[in-house]
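FAQ

Q: What does a record look like?
A: Structure on top, sequence underneath. For example:
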């Protein structure tokens, strides 16, 4: 009887220790997901603020290129709460027009830096969210499964059309082979 009591007490203690450990680990994961998600959102807001400043500055300058003016106004009207393919394409067109008109802006370095910071925070979130056992806890929450990278456009240099590059990447994912440059 004493052995049975000892075994039961040991099993109950083990279950309690596991339950308390799980509770603390779950709270830690949720807290980290919250701060990482907020970090991604904050970095995107900082980046979109820099975009808005650049657009305002360029619109105030007397730019004779109607295409560039059109894309700047489109970018201004576009909702920039999160990454979208439309936003990426508009940024590509603005960069392309700035390059073709030889219009120098002091924003290129700032924008590239902001994109790098945003992508780093996205990478940290996506890796943490996708790691075992974090994804088991996170799948029952409202946090996004992943954030999208903004990695096709580099400001101040010639870029490949993002629509064409996405098609090549999607084709590479589907069929394999050499990674598209």
């Amino acid at each position: 009887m004493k052995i049975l009591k000892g075994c039961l007490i040991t099993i109950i203690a083990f279950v309690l220790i596991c339950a308390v450990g799980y509770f603390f680990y779950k709270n830690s994961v949720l807290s980290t997901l919250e701060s990482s998600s907020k970090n991604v959102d904050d970095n995107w807001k900082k980046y979109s603020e820099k975009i808005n400043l650049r657009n305002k500055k360029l619109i105030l300058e007397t730019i004779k290129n109607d295409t560039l003016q059109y894309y700047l106004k489109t970018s201004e009207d576009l909702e920039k709460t999160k990454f979208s393919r439309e936003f990426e394409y508009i940024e590509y067109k603005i960069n392309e027009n700035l390059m073709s008109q030889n219009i120098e802006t002091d924003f290129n370095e700032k924008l590239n830096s902001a994109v790098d910071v945003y992508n780093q925070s996205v990478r940290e979130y996506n890796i943490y969210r996708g790691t075992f056992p974090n994804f088991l806890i996170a799948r029952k929450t409202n946090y996004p499964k992943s954030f999208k990278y903004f990695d096709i456009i580099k400001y101040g240099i010639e870029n490949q059309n993002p629509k064409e590059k996405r098609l090549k990447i999607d084709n590479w994912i589907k069929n394999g082979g050499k990674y598209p440059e």
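Q: Is there anything notable about this one?
A: The CA atoms of residues 129 and 135 lie 5 Å apart.
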